[in-house]
């Protein structure tokens, strides 16, 4: 059996991306070169930031406060060194079978250590506002053969991205110590898409703040930068609104299953400091049922049955469309909530999906499902509601049904999120809308786990057997990775596709399993949107190249405490079988 | 909103199984009745076993050694009280929205406590042998309104089953303390199937002994009683064989990724003490590739390519069929391994699935894929290999291909495991074979998570897009629960279906995700096989009845440390919405 590193030395590096663990940075950088020299790393490193010595503390990596560049970088350096020195893994599953001990560098030979990390940042940040919008995330990273590390970036977030790539060079040695075998390393890198995110549904199931933090951590490892929190829906209202305490007071699932204003602030700060901007969605006017428990005056069709006539899933409930109390309600709601997000986010997501016209017929302020009556009301709704968002300095995001299905006109500032597929995307960009893609045929992570409704033993059993969910089967990482959200668009149109999100709707997902729902599948999205569907040669990226790198990165995530599902069995990850689990026709 | 317990008081108990948490014992007992009285439970309980005071220790529930009835029961009592007193959960997700505090019993009112647990066992066990085979698992459990608990059983395993049901009566109070609201309780219970199991594949992915223990724990909570360990396959040989150390020495994935003889013994003892009999499978003559690394003389078609011509998945490799060294090899292997299992198990599983005749053509001792040549060789193989199993006092289990596809005759003692579906089951029982069902259309837990092979960007991409696995989509618990393995059989034939196993083949499953792969779906199998597909009235059990009980039981599993997936969102588990998530036509 040929052991991997010697193999890596013989062949040129780019060809070997698929079988060389030490080059397996995820998402793959724009340009990368590496050598075959071993470097070790310990705590004795001289770290400077723009010429000043940078203090760091491996034991309190999360404790950074505030938004100055130096604070952001200090926190990131502390976390990076913790990941490298404490959370590395012994890569037995990446080397040949039973060959770990003979493949690792000698632990007894003289060691060259990383001596310095020199960080240079051109720009500076002074407040949270500097960390939102279209940040320059580019960076250069070099690791010399004698252990000198240099990082150049425009923004502190670029520094974070560099540090993450740096952390992925290292492995735990089976006899102790941490090493890389690929020095010198040179990386030049930047993302292909501005918006790279995860939709996290905390309304249908409640998620602890800790599980949100853990997800943000993993997002930062994946260089993902947008956490879309679907905060309210018809099933529960976990979001505390101090001006309207009755909303969560009557609409949350249970005492304590809420997000306090402190939680909302902490989540946003925690995320921004990791290069992740949080976007809250308070879905309107549909998906609003549970608010009827505290505000029956603003909700129509609450718990209307049979639900399938009035909404997409139980329980039904929509904001009334011709009721002045709704305007006051939304004024109060937005005046409370948006001032608590606009320092940390560019966006507010107003929802806008799946408005049901039969439910509007039950709304006594409208009383018909006639679209000629309803359309002007929806136009008025969106005008007013987008106005509330803009009033607080935020850009509205809306699901695509408003422009595409309800024939509503919207400001060109509005960003549209599309879940319905390629035709919808083409339609949106042809109308000039910036578009975020969450095509359910590819990027819905909840699909394919079986239906969550219970069917009676009679006709329902016969009709719905074998009880698949609506978007079955599951979208595996290979399918997620295969999708090009800009395919078939002109260059100008393609620019309007600013990115995408995988969506983890939580009808049957909660925090016990969220890690393996999200990972490694969100990692597939992360590489697609950071590195692009095509490589430098213009060829579609291949599963055959991606799988070994993703397998390695998955082990890093697990070692760092996020329980990602595996790519495949160790037989396929071990180097000598790199081609055995390929299917080439 | 009507709170649940009062609801439970008004309506009769059987009708309310679907919405009354405190009656939600999983799997549902044969007969159960309950009241509406609250009882609390603490550590001050007088526990006797056959008239003798039974010492127990909540802090070392796993420490029981040996196989005397009293020791088994003592361990079970200790674990049960730990589960009740330390690992109970606050059932906010089972009561109405935000109604926990008003629905729980008053923590300040005078409390009636459980005072005694009186255990009477008719039979006695003296060795591990008493705990294998078709054990009498029946039991009676009563909890009086004044806190006296009585358990009657024939076997210590029956006592275990009673204690498990007892443990499921209790909840953690939000202000501290543990209670049930359903006293008095009377249960009479016994299983419908003898064999209720899980197939755990530790060859394709390695699983720690701890993860196997955790699975055994959860099996005992579910009253499952057979753990089928698929111990070796073509990908890795993790099983240490002291007479042939080279098998794992060259065939395991990495140093330490093996099961020592001590592990094998510990797993079997741990399982038996929890009412679970372990059945090891050393798959032959197919699925034997990796043994070629140490014993090339006994393996044909090792890593033959293209693999799809010679085996079901990479890497290929089968035992040679006309090679005397194979006989000696298997003699040595079985003489080493079986004496280490026959004190703890009734069975040895010889595999026998997916023998590939083209691979036999590559076997120079045969050299043809002509079935007229191969058939007598397979007959000879099975005769000899079953003889090895019988020599050590064990009953052979074999996958169905040997009798059904290879036209091989076998002793009537042999138990056949069927994965190919209803026609195969009918064929097997019509030939008089005891049959274990693992119909892949229903009970394969690995299905539907996406393919694990990597496809090139050319024709393979086009052919295999969207990269579903062979048995996609996933088998949800509702589908698992819908399947009657005895459907369409005569009464005599039905008796030959001794039970079933869900199968968790581990091509892309490892211990980070095994909990949510197995649970709650194995729980669906557990109720189906313990309680039967039909209820006392002869009606098929309904998802509508099962889902709320399974949701509650899932919370118990999570609280006890097994990360089961949820059934659905809290909206559906909360009592006031018990019917909202039903689909009735």
TrEMBL record, chains A, B:
It comes from the Eukaryota. GO terms for biological process: carbohydrate metabolic process; glycosaminoglycan metabolic process. Residues 1-24 form the signal peptide. InterPro entries: Beta_hexosaminidase_sua/sub, GH, Glyco_hydro_20_cat, Hex-like_dom2, HEX_eukaryotic_N. Keywords: Glycoprotein, Glycosidase, Hydrolase, Signal. Residues 193-532 form the Glycoside hydrolase family 20 catalytic domain. Residues 25-169 form the Beta-hexosaminidase eukaryotic type N-terminal domain. Its EC number is 3.2.1.52. The keyword Glycoprotein applies. PANTHER family: BETA-HEXOSAMINIDASE. Belongs to the glycosyl hydrolase 20 family. This is Beta-hexosaminidase. It comes from Monosporascus ibericus.
């Amino acid at each position: 059996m040929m052991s991997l590193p010697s193999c890596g030395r013989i062949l040129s590096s780019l060809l070997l991306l698929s079988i060389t663990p030490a080059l397996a940075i995820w998402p793959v950088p724009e340009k990368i070169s590496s050598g075959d020299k071993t470097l070790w790393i310990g705590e004795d490193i001289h770290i400077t930031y723009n010429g000043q010595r940078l203090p760091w503390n491996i034991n309190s990596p999360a404790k950074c406060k505030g938004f100055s560049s130096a604070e952001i970088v200090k926190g990131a350096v502390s976390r990076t060194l913790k990941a490298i020195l404490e959370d590395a893994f012994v890569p037995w599953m990446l080397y040949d079978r039973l060959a770990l001990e003979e493949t690792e560098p000698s632990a007894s030979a003289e060691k060259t250590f990383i001596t310095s990390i020199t960080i240079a940042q051109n720009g500076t940040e002074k407040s949270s506002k500097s960390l939102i919008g279209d940040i320059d995330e580019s960076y250069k990273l070099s690791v010399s053969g004698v252990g000198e590390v240099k990082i150049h970036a425009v923004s502190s977030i670029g520094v974070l991205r560099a540090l993450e790539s740096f952390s992925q060079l290292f492995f735990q040695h089976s006899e102790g110590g941490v090493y890389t075998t690929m020095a010198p390393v040179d990386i030049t890198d930047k993302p292909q898409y501005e918006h790279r995110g995860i939709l996290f549904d905390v309304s249908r199931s409640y998620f602890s703040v800790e599980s949100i933090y853990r997800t943000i951590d993993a997002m930062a490892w994946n260089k993902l930068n947008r956490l879309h929190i679907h905060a309210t829906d018809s099933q529960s209202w976990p979001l505390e609104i101090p001006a309207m305490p009755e909303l969560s007071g009557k609409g949350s699932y249970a005492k304590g299953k809420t997000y306090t204003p402190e939680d909302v602030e902490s989540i946003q700060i925690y995320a921004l400091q990791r290069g992740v901007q949080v976007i809250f969605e308070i879905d309107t006017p549909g998906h609003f049922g549970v608010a009827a428990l505290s505000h029956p005056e603003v909700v129509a069709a609450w718990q209307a049955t049979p639900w399938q006539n009035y909404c997409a899933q139980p329980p039904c409930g929509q904001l009334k469309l011709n009721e002045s109390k709704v305007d006051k309600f939304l004024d109060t709601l937005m005046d409370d909530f948006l001032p608590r997000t606009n320092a940390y986010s560019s966006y507010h997501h107003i929802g806008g999906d799946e408005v049901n016209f039969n439910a509007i017929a039950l709304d006594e302020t409208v009383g018909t499902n006639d679209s000629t009556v309803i359309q002007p009301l929806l136009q008025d709704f969106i005008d007013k509601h987008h106005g509330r968002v803009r009033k607080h300095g935020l850009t509205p995001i809306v699901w695509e049904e408003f422009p595409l299905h309800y024939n509503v006109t919207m400001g060109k500032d509005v960003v549209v999120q599309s879940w319905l597929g390629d035709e919808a995307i083409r339609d949106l960009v042809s109308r000039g809308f910036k578009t975020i893609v969450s095509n359910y045929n590819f990027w819905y992570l909840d699909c394919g786990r079986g239906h969550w409704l219970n069917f009676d033993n009679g006709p329902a059993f016969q009709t719905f057997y074998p009880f698949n969910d609506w978007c079955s089967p599951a979208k595996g990482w290979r399918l997620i990775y295969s999708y090009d959200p800009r395919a078939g668009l002109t260059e100008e149109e393609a620019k309007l596709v600013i990115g995408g999100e995988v969506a983890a709707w939580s009808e049957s997902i909660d925090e016990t399993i969220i890690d393996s729902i999200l990972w490694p599948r969100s990692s597939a999205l992360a590489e697609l949107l950071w590195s692009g569907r095509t490589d430098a040669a213009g060829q579609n990226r291949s599963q055959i190249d991606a799988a070994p790198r993703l397998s390695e990165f998955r082990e890093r995530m697990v070692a760092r405490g996020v329980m990602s599902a595996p790519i495949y069995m160790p037989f396929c990850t071990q180097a000598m079988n790199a081609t055995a689990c390929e299917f080439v026709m």
